[in-house]
Design goal:
Layout (H helix, E strand, L loop, with lengths): L2 H18 L15 E4 L7 E5 L5 E5 L5 H8 L2 E4 L4 E4 L4 E4 L28 H10 L7 E3 L11 H17 L5 E6 L2 H11 L1 H7 E7 L7 H10 L15 H8 L3 H4 L15 E8 L5 E8 L1 H11 L4 E4 L2 E4 L4 H15 L8 E8 L1 E9 L18 E7 L5 H4 L8 E6 L9 H10 L14 E14 L3 E14 L10 E10 L3 E13 L5 E13 L1
C-alpha cells in the first residue's frame, strides 16, 4: 500500500477512536486469555556462541558490529550425517538460544543494541507490543520459542526443547491449552512437531495459526540462496552486516535450507524452474546458444556441478562445501514426514498468507547475448527472476497448500516480514484468539470497533500505480444517545512530491449512527503514485 494511503487510513482510525470519547491508554492484564506461544522462522532467533573453555556467551546472530567476522568464526558449520545435525567448524563453540523474558527476548528485536534503523532487526517486536495492549502478559500468557535455525526442522534436540516449553507453559497456566502462532519456517517446524510429538501437541495445544509458511517450499528464494547466498538487510546496512558470500557458506550446510526447496511431489500450477542460457560447442567446433530449463528434480545436477569447487578457508585449512547430497537425502525424508501430517480433531488450524508482492518463483542465469559457458560461473552471476504472486519470499501457491484441515485460510496484502506488524493481521489474530471476547464488550471502553469489510485493489504499470481501497467498521456501543446524532462525513486530500515519486490520495469517509446506538463507518480512498 502506498505510504500516503496508509497514513490516511491511520488518520481515519484515529478519528474513530476520538468518536468513542473514551481513553484507550490505560494498560491492563486480562486474566481470562489463554496462553500464546510465538515461533519464528529462519534467521528469526538470537543465537549466542558459548565458548566451551570459558563458558562465556556472545551474541553472533544478529549483530551489526563485527557481524561478518563473528559469523565466519562461530557459525560456519559442517553437517554430520550420522546425527542429522550441523555443528560449528570451531569445536569449542556451542550455539545456544537465550531464554530471557520467557523466550521472547530471542525473537523480539534481533539486535537489541542497535540504536538507529532498529526496525530492520525487528522480528515479533510489533506483535508482542500489540498483544500486551490486548491484555497479554509476558511469562503468564505470552511466551516465545527461539531455536537454532541452521538445523533441520525435525532435529530431535529442537523438538525436545519445544515439547519441554509447551509442557512448562501448560503446567504454569493451570492446564489451559496454548495457542501457537508460527511465522515462515516456524510453520514447517510446527508441522514436524505435530507429526512426531502428537501426544504432547494434543495435550497442550488449543490452536495453531501459521503465518507466511512455505508449506511447499520457497523455490525462487532457495534456488538463488543455494547458488548465490542471501542478504537479510538492504541498502547501506549491507556494508555493516554479513557479506552475501559469507552467508552463502553458512546456508550451504544448513538442513533447514534444503527443507525449503520446492516440493518435488507437489502439483505446481506453475512449475518452478532453474533456467540457464548455455553456450555449447559440438564435435566440429560449431557453437550454439540455447535456453535450458530444469524442473526441481533435475536442478539437483546443476547445483552439484555449480558448487563442486566451493570451499572456505577456516583456521588456515581449505574446507570444501559442495552441494550436500547427504543433507538433501535428509530433507527428502523430512518432506515425506510433512506430507503425512494431520491436525488432531480437537485442535483448530488457521493459515494466513501474504499476497500482492512480486515473488521469485523461477530463476534464470545468463542471457542470449551473454550465455553461461561453464556452470562453475553460476555462484558469481546474478540471476533474473520470474515472478508470481506471494509475499516476496513465499508464493501464494505454496503458502496456501498446507495439506491440512483448516478452519480458515486468509490472504493479506503484505510482504514476508512486514506481515508480522500488519494491522489487518492483528485484527484477525485478535478475533481468532478470542482476545476481543464476545466481541461486543471491551473491558476498557464498553465498546468495540468491529471491522466488517476490507477491499483493496492495485493496478500497476512501469511508472504508475493506482490503488483503490474500501474499508468499513461497526462501532458497537451501549450509549443509546448516539442514535440522536446526525450523520458525519468528510474528505481528506493529501499529496507528496519528491525527486523520485509523486503521490496523491483522496479519501471520503462517512459515520452513520444507527437506532440501536451503534455507528457505521465507511472509508473509500483512491491513491495515485507515479515515478518522477
Amino acid at each position: 500500500m502506498a505510504v500516503l494511503l496508509e497514513d490516511v487510513v491511520k488518520s481515519v482510525e484515529l478519528l474513530i477512536k476520538l468518536i468513542t470519547k473514551r481513553s484507550q491508554e490505560q494498560a491492563y492484564v486480562d486474566q481470562t486469555l489463554d496462553p500464546v506461544l510465538l515461533v519464528p522462522g529462519i534467521a528469526g532467533s538470537i543465537l549466542n556462541a558459548v565458548d566451551a573453555k570459558t563458558g562465556k556467551p556472545e551474541r553472533v546472530w544478529v549483530r551489526i558490529l563485527g557481524a561478518d567476522h563473528e559469523l565466519r568464526d562461530k557459525l560456519w558449520s559442517r553437517y554430520d550425517p550420522s546425527t542429522g545435525k550441523t555443528v560449528s567448524l570451531d569445536a569449542n563453540i556451542n550455539v545456544e538460544v537465550p531464554e530471557d523474558r520467557y523466550g521472547l527476548h530471542a525473537i523480539d528485536t534481533l539486535d537489541p543494541d542497535m540504536a538507529l534503523g532498529g526496525d530492520c532487526v525487528y522480528y515479533f517486536h510489533d506483535m508482542i507490543l500489540e498483544f500486551i495492549k490486548w491484555g497479554y502478559q509476558e511469562g503468564t500468557t505470552l511466551f516465545g520459542f527461539g531455536y537454532d535455525f541452521r538445523q533441520s526442522n525435525r532435529l530431535q534436540d529442537t523438538l525436545d526443547r519445544l515439547a519441554s516449553k509447551l509442557e512448562t507453559i501448560y503446567a504454569a497456566s493451570g492446564g489451559r491449552k496454548i495457542n501457537i502462532i508460527s511465522h515462515s519456517m516456524g510453520g514447517i517446524l510446527m508441522k514436524c512437531f505435530m507429526t512426531l510429538q502428537t501426544d504432547i501437541f494434543k495435550k497442550c495445544v488449543n490452536s495453531w495459526i501459521a503465518i507466511a509458511a512455505p508449506f511447499q517450499g520457497a523455490p525462487g528464494y532457495i534456488t538463488s540462496t543455494l547458488l548465490n547466498g542471501a542478504s537479510f538487510v538492504e541498502g547501506w546496512k549491507e556494508n555493516f552486516f554479513i557479506k552475501k558470500w559469507s552467508m552463502h557458506q553458512l546456508l550451504i550446510e544448513c538442513p533447514s535450507i534444503y527443507e525449503l526447496m520446492a516440493c518435488l511431489d507437489f502439483k505446481w500450477e506453475n512449475i518452478p524452474l532453474l533456467e540457464i542460457w548455455r553456450k555449447k560447442c559440438d564435435s566440429n567446433g560449431n557453437s550454439s546458444i540455447m535456453l535450458e530449463s530444469y524442473p526441481p528434480s533435475e536442478a539437483i545436477q546443476v547445483f552439484t556441478e555449480a558448487l563442486s569447487t566451493n570451499k572456505v578457508n577456516f583456521g588456515g585449512e581449505d574446507i570444501f562445501l559442495p552441494f550436500n547430497m547427504d543433507i538433501l537425502k535428509w530433507a527428502n525424508e523430512t518432506r515425506k514426514l510433512l506430507a503425512s501430517a494431520v491436525v488432531p480433531n480437537q485442535i483448530k488450524f488457521y493459515n494466513i498468507y501474504g499476497t500482492s508482492n512480486k515473488t521469485a518463483h523461477s530463476v534464470c542465469y545468463g542471457s542470449e547475448t551473454a550465455p553461461v559457458t561453464d556452470l562453475l560461473q553460476l555462484p558469481s552471476l546474478q540471476g533474473k527472476y520470474i515472478y508470481v504472486d506471494g509475499d516476496g519470499t513465499v508464493p501464494v501457491e505454496s503458502a496456501i497448500a498446507d495439506g491440512l484441515h483448516a478452519e480458515a485460510r486468509v490472504g493479506v496484502p503484505g510482504d514476508h516480514r512486514g506481515i508480522l506488524c500488519d494491522r489487518h493481521v492483528f485484527r484477525i489474530l485478535k478475533h481468532w484468539l478470542k482476545a476481543d471476547h464476545d466481541p461486543f464488550y471491551n473491558p476498557l471502553n464498553d465498546y468495540v470497533i468491529l471491522p466488517t469489510a476490507f477491499e483493496i485493489e492495485t493496478l500497476k504499470s512501469d511508472s504508475l500505480q493506482v490503488t483503490t481501497l474500501r474499508e468499513e467498521w461497526e462501532i458497537i456501543s451501549d450509549d443509546q444517545e448516539c442514535a440522536a446524532e446526525s450523520e458525519l462525513s468528510g474528505s481528506i486530500t493529501v499529496s507528496s512530491d519528491t525527486n523520485v515519486q509523486k503521490e496523491a490520495v483522496t479519501a471520503v469517509f462517512t459515520v452513520k449512527p444507527h437506532e440501536d446506538g451503534n455507528k457505521h463507518v465507511e472509508l473509500n480512498a483512491l491513491s495515485i503514485s507515479a515515478s518522477a
